[in-house]
Amino acid sequence: MSVLFFLKSITSSFAESGGGKVFLFPRESNTAYVRIMPKKPLNLQAFTLCMRVATELNNQRSTILFAYRTEQADELNVWQEYGKVYLYLRSSSDGAFFALPPLSAFPTHLCTTWDSSTGATTFWVNGRRNLLKIYRRGHKVVSGGTIILGQDPDSYLGQFDINQSFVGEISDVQMWDSVLTAGQIELLYNNRYEAPIGNVLDWNSLQYQIFGNVVQVSD
Hints:
Blueprint: E1 3-7, E2 15-17, E3 21-25, E4 33-37, E5 46-54, E6 62-69, E7 74-81, E8 84-89, E9 95-99, E10 108-115, E11 120-125, E12 128-129, E13 133-134, E14 146-149, E15 168-176, H1 182-189, E16 206-211, E17 214-218
Antiparallel strand pairs: 1-17, 2-16, 3-15, 3-17, 4-14, 4-16, 5-10, 5-15, 6-7, 6-14, 7-8, 8-9, 10-11, 11-12, 11-13
């Protein structure tokens, strides 16, 4: 991998880039994060969220993997907490948790799916599905928030905790406003050209803004 650029201060405008990139968070911080602009508002009654993650913090502490917060609440968060992975919808305490194979320094393709009509929720690891659980049946994810990688905002775009920050690599972030099929998720894991393109977040045309000590590298 070759370093493309390294920013210590706020990027002035949203960048747009192709798919061959990785966001590297080299150390614990309460200032380093990436803000992502979605293609459409997160007004969701179902979703699939996927990313590739590499980290060595699996069992050491709670680590934020994905945060979507409105001014009112933590609307949609994914956490790694002491060997388990959690999905939280409009809550910071009542989540759906899954005991998954541990994340490691080798990139893991991680997806989570949720459907409001049934509450069916699960995680997928490297193309394989975990068991289904029922969570937040009848709920709706509301628009008007901000997506952040690397930090957990305890207020809207603020109050970051260094002990919850992400350290490692994140890439290939994709999101849909529907639940993908097993075959589609397998195509994504294998990085096949016919894999679906996210209609909420598309890594290949992602608009984002880097803050603090985040290094973008080419994969």
